[in-house]
Amino acid sequence: xxxxxxxxxxxxxxxHLPGFAGPLTAQKFSGGQSNPTYRLITPxxxxxxxxxxxxxxxxxxxxxxxxxxxxxxxxxxxxPVARMHILCEDExxxxxxxxxxxxxxxxxxxxxxxxxxxxxxxxxxxxEMNRVLAAIHDVDLxxxxxxxxxPSGNYYxxxxxxxxxxxxxxxxxxxxxxxxxxxxLDAHIPEDDGQRTLVxxxxxxxxxxxAPHGTACVAVLDWELSTLGHPxxxxxxxxxxxxxxxxxxxxxxxxxxxxxxxLWSDAEFIARYCERRGIAPIEGFHFYLAFxxxxxxxxxxxxxxxxxxxxxxxxARGLRLGEYVPEFARAGLSxxxxxx
Length: 340
Description:
Elements: H1 6-16, E1 25-28, E2 37-41, E3 46-51, H2 64-73, E4 84-88, E5 98-102, H3 119-137, H4 155-170, H5 176-187, E6 197-199, E7 208-210, E8 217-220, E9 227-229, H6 232-242, H7 258-261, H8 266-277, H9 285-309, H10 315-322, H11 325-335
Helix pairs in contact: 3-8, 4-9, 5-9, 5-11, 6-9, 9-10, 9-11
């Protein structure tokens, strides 16, 4: 069972989506903890449906309407995204808003060590990951009509306040490390340097799709946390992810011989990013890294809370991921002491 009312979806699409023809079946994609996502299969083609999860949600969370608007705006840019078809904001159809997009065929890599690939292939994949990240941050906000996609002002001030509030609203345990990390971040917000770009908000290898038989990125997925803000948050999130354990849940590169596998070092990835964007080397990177650990801890705490409340897309996995909250908090505190 997909958990999706396919009859209701098919009836709505028959009226609103040109070229749609049933019958319709659905398969839920596994593993996601945010907005439930389904493959819609018809006799002639397949689509993807992404919806808000059911239940009571935090304000501004799971905004599929924003995801749809953004990806439609990026259609003709150098940022690869799936083609958007239609947005349904009528909650009476399946209980929540949803949107329909093309299904993009491609390869995804849950493990950044990318087992099964050759060193040159791994190097090329990470180069493409670096290119796409720079492309996201160089999107012309005026040309794409995205100048109002996020508020103005100091991005980190806004984000620290937001995630502190969301963490507090979903907290289930007393974690002194998280309390200390939030206090440090609050006291060390960088001055606004004028950079205001599109920010993905959850940029990592497993949120990218690559060509079935090549190394080109064919789609960037999971834009739920996107906004206008400071680009180093995305860059630091990549470095943070790589510091995680090289396990199925950690999805990191801790202890991996990167050079032997053709993988980039943190410094190489950062330097190539700066070169692509034509910017100077980054000072005070430890703040951005500590912030990334903090935000991930807050996100996973929300996942844990939804699992406990019965609203998670995958409750069992949500509880497992929630066990990492203390580890991210401790790693964030450690990063505050590293003057990168």
